[in-house]
Structures are given as C-alpha cells and as structure tokens.
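stage 2 :: seqdesign
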C-alpha cells in the first residue's frame, strides 16, 4: 500500500511484471528461464521450492503466488523443473553498500528517540570495533553494522526500512552542518536519498552526496510530502452549538402551579486537541515505514520458525544427543563445528533461541513439535545414518584403545616385555613395532566378549596385533617372559 503516498512497493511491482512473464510461458521450466532472462535471480531452496530475487528484494515463490503447485496448475506437470531450478540457481550479492560521515569525532552511540524506527524495530549487539543491528523479529535478520572510526554504516539488508534505520543511527551521533556519502548500486543509493528527503534532513543542516536524483525522483518526493502534509493537517474546531431555551407550558388548571421545563441544551462537541510538535515530527519521520508495515504481508511466528529450520543441515544435528547445534557437542561458541560452517552454526543457534524467546509460552508446544519433526526428518537421511555408523565404529575403536591402556597398567611386572611399550604404536600405525608378546590370552578373551557386529568391525583391527597364521603380527601366542614356562595354545579365530 505504498501507493497511498505515490510509491509502488517492490513486491507489487514484481508481481505485475512476473504475471506478464507467466502468461507468456509454456511450462514451469520455461517460466524460470524467462524470468532469469529478464533480470531476476532464482534461488533454489530444495526440491521444487524456490525464491525470486530482484535487486535487493528476495521473496519466496509462494509469497508471490508462484509456487510450483500454482505453476503446475497453470502450465502443467514438469518433471524437469527441479533440475531447472538447480541449473538457474544464483544469488546476487552487493558489496560496499554504505553511508559514511565526514565527522572526525562523532558522539558515538548517543541515545535515540524511543519512538523512532531504529529504536522500535531493531536490536543491537555492541562489540569493541562495531555495533551490529538486527531486525527485532524471530528471524533476527542482520540489517547493518555501525563503525565509529571512520563513522560509517555498512548495510547487509538493502531495504528502505533498513536504510532509514541506518540514517537515524548516523544522524543521532552527528552535529550539523554535516555531509554524508552513500556508496552502492543505484537502486540502493536512491533508497537512501529518498529516505533522506522524507526525513527533512537537509533543512536540519545535513547533506547527502553520491546520488544525483532524476526528475522522476523529485516528483516522487514532492507527491509523498504532499500526502504527509494532508495527513498531518490539523482539523478546524467546530463552533459550539448555541443554548436553546424552551418556553414553559401553560398551566392546564388554574389552581395548579405552573410547570417549568428545564431548558434543553445540545452537548458542545469537544475540540480535537492539536497534535504536539514532537508527535508531528515523529509521525513525519516514521509514517513511511508505518504504512508499509500496516499493509504489507506479515509472516506468522510459526512460518518464520519453519523458515529458520529450512536452513538446518544434517551436519548441524549432533550424533550423541540428536540436537541441532548442540552446545555440548559443538561447543558454547560452536568452536567444534566444521570450520567452513562455523558462522552458519552460530547464526542458526541464535535464530532458534530468539524465535523461542519471542514466541513465549503460547507457541512453545507447537515449536517443540515442529522442531521434533525436523530432527526426525534429518535422522532419516542416509547421510545421518552413515554418521551414526561411523560414530559407532569410532566408539568401539576407542574402547579397544582404553582396553590396551588398562593392560599396560595391569602387567606392571612385565616391564621387560617390549610389546607393552609398543602395542599402542601398532594401533596408531606408527611403524615402531618390535615383535614380542605376552598378551595373547587377554586380547582373545576381550574379542570373544564382543557381539557379532562388533567382532566384524574389530576383526581387521585386531589382526594387526595377533599372529594366527605366521603373518608376523606382534602377538604370536609365544611367551618370552622367563617366569612363564609353557606356551599358550589358544588361537584367535578371525570372523
């Protein structure tokens, strides 16, 4: 509903353009090919799910009424659609989208107006060198970073709302007269310029450089400002209605006293209290975003939570506890996560925690069920089953290492038996092996205690130690210790 102020929203503009391309398409794949040929990016989210990107805006296909289900109903079944999405998958990244100030020593992180967009719709995390700002929503999407030296706002989200919040952050710490320089793609610089004009910052002594507005831009601002003026116009008070007296009725009987009627008065209408100057300024500054929020499509907390979980991969599910981004297994700061996924692990962990906090008790049970379903889905994958099997094998091998270490402690009287000093070298494959043995029975007894599956796993493992067929393995069943006179006849039978 940005049309109220003469501005067409990006989403509505995309819908109209994509609707035309849809009418020209012969199949779902043909539609994808057409939109990518016309400046759109397609982001493959898995299977037949996808999103569409245009400049700084990304919308799910379902938000635009263009899910595969809809495409199939209009254009027919397409068995190659998933492959088309894979082939066309592309995300456009924008670098160096920023506003820089010439302020040499800004009054860093001054308090801002409590009713501003920055204060009501964003939250922040302060670091030693910067402050990170995030949307105050379940997704906690990152908006921008604010630096002190040099004074600069670097944007991650290029929307108009993010642009306004970033400007408010810089202006709060700046002293007029002051100049700001905007960098980035043209559409982003236009958004910054537009917000700058609607906030009336030039009249307050601030100047924006880096973008030259077109005649259409100037007309757009003029129309929007006229809308603001009409909406903020004070209503004229209505005049108070005059008091009307009613003549008393004449007496019906001569002996009766006259009955006097109370004069009838109309209740005067109350005057509309004029809007305070501070409120007018606040309304002027934030109306742009309030209108956008009021009429834009809103995502429910449940849908936002599902969107977060859609980014979870099998790697993020720990084997030991079956928990997503488990702090016990991956570390409190995800330091045990794969290095190339470290930031993703932290982000998902933070988003899930924030979603639960924002939802409160009312949605906790529903969130738990959604999370449980997602975990079950991940556990059913072949990749996760392979991780479980690998962990099981590793546990058996670790247990065997522990067993060998216990033997070293147990056989302290055999200090001269060299195998005790080198048996672990066998397991580690270090090559420092001296053939000698006194542990044959102990090891075969341990192996005999294993079940069939464990014996199968350990079979090749213990063959490195035990010589049953003259292979030259270090434990051959012949005792070299002088205190032992007999030979051990038990032979380990491999699986």
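stage 2 :: out
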């Amino acid at each position: 509903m940005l049309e109220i102020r003469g501005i067409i929203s990006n989403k509505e503009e995309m819908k109209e353009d994509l609707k035309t391309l849809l009418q020209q398409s012969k199949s779902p794949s043909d539609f994808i090919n057409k939109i990518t040929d016309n400046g759109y990016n397609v982001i493959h989210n898995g299977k037949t799910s996808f999103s569409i990107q245009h400049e700084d805006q990304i919308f799910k296909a379902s938000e635009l009424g263009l899910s595969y289900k809809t495409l199939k109903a209009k254009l027919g079944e397409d068995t190659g659609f998933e492959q088309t999405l894979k082939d066309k998958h592309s995300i456009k990244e924008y670098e160096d989208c920023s506003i820089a100030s010439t302020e040499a020593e800004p009054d860093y992180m001054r308090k801002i107006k409590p009713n501003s967009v920055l204060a009501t719709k964003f939250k922040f995390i302060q670091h030693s060198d910067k402050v990170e700002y995030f949307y105050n929503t379940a997704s906690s999407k990152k908006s921008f970073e604010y630096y002190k030296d040099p004074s600069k706002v670097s944007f991650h989200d290029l929307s108009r709302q993010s642009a306004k919040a970033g400007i408010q952050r810089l202006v709060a710490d700046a002293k007029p007269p002051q100049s700001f320089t905007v960098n980035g793609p043209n559409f982003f610089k236009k958004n910054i310029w537009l917000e700058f004009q609607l906030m009336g910052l030039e009249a307050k002594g601030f100047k924006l450089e880096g973008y030259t507005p077109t005649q259409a831009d100037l007309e757009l601002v003029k129309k929007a400002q006229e809308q603001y003026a009409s909406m903020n116009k004070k209503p004229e008070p209505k005049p108070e209605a005059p008091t009307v007296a009613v003549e008393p009725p004449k007496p019906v009987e001569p002996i009766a006293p006259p009955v006097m009627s109370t004069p009838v008065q109309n209740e005067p209408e109350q005057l509309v209290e004029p809007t305070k100057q501070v409120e007018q300024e606040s309304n002027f500054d934030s109306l742009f975003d309030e209108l956008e929020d009021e009429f834009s499509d809103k995502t429910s907390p449940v849908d936002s939570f599902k969107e977060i979980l859609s980014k979870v991969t099998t790697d993020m599910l720990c084997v030991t506890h079956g928990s997503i981004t488990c702090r016990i297994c991956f570390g409190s700061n995800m330091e045990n996560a794969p290095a190339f996924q470290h930031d993703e692990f932290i982000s998902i962990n933070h988003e899930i925690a924030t979603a639960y906090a924002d939802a409160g008790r009312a949605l906790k049970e529903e969130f738990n069920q959604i999370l449980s379903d997602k975990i079950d889905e991940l556990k059913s994958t072949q990749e996760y089953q392979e991780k479980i099997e690998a962990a099981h094998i590793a546990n058996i091998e670790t247990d065997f290492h522990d067993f060998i270490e216990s033997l070293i402690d147990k056989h302290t009287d055999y200090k001269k038996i060299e195998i005790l000093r080198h048996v672990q070298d066998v397991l580690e494959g270090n090559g420092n092996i001296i053939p000698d043995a006194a542990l044959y029975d102990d090891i075969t007894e341990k192996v005999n205690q294993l079940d069939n599956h464990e014996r199968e796993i350990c079979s090749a493992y213990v063959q490195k130690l035990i010589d049953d067929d003259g292979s030259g393995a270090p434990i051959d069943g012949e005792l070299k210790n002088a205190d032992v006179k007999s030979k051990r006849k038990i032979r380990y039978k491999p699986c």
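stage 3 :: structure notes
- The CA atoms of residues 28 and 90 lie 18 Å apart.
- The first strand starts at residue 41 and ends at 46.
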